[in-house]
Amino acid sequence: MSDVLNKATVLVLNRNWQAIDVKTAADAFSMMATGAATALDIMGNDNMQPVRWEDWVQLPVREGDNSIGTVSRRIRVPTVLVLARFDKVPKRRPKFCAKAIWERDGGTCQYTGRKLRPHEGNIDHIVPLSRGGKTNWENCVLADKRINSRKGSKLPHEAGLALLRQPKAPREMPVSELIKNQHEVRDWEMFLVGGGGVVEF
Fold it and tell me: Taking the domains of the chain in order of start, what are their residue ranges?
């Protein structure tokens, strides 16, 4: 049961029905019980109904639904919540990681301009760590593995290289663009930008 309760499988919408967060079932039950949110009973793309906590606990558990057992009954875990009062869409920068560097740089070596396949590229520290460089947006770029190996612990100009452009942190984006459907919850698809491919938040 703890696995079901602690897995982030509940999409949170603001009161305008825009995706803004992902919560665990435990968080979702707490938000519903305090009146901060209602759950959507989704029976198809054009058939969904917001349901308050006191009614939600009475709903039958359908085949394929996640649920938790209580002393008196099983309770369905919601897949989507709608907040009662919050209507903003917060902005956030993508999380710094190798995948985000790859996306920022468009899968292109930042020294040669060559489009790379996944196994051909890695992350280069422009100012190497051994020379005081930092691991951040402004000092990391996607590079062809062979170019990166040739550069080693040199600065680009010492290795006869020049950057195509100075790297910087990506702009802040509405969180609705950053939420990804890691657990492939079908009910999320209509609420996520681009249909809800799989990305880490």
Answer: 2-91, 98-159
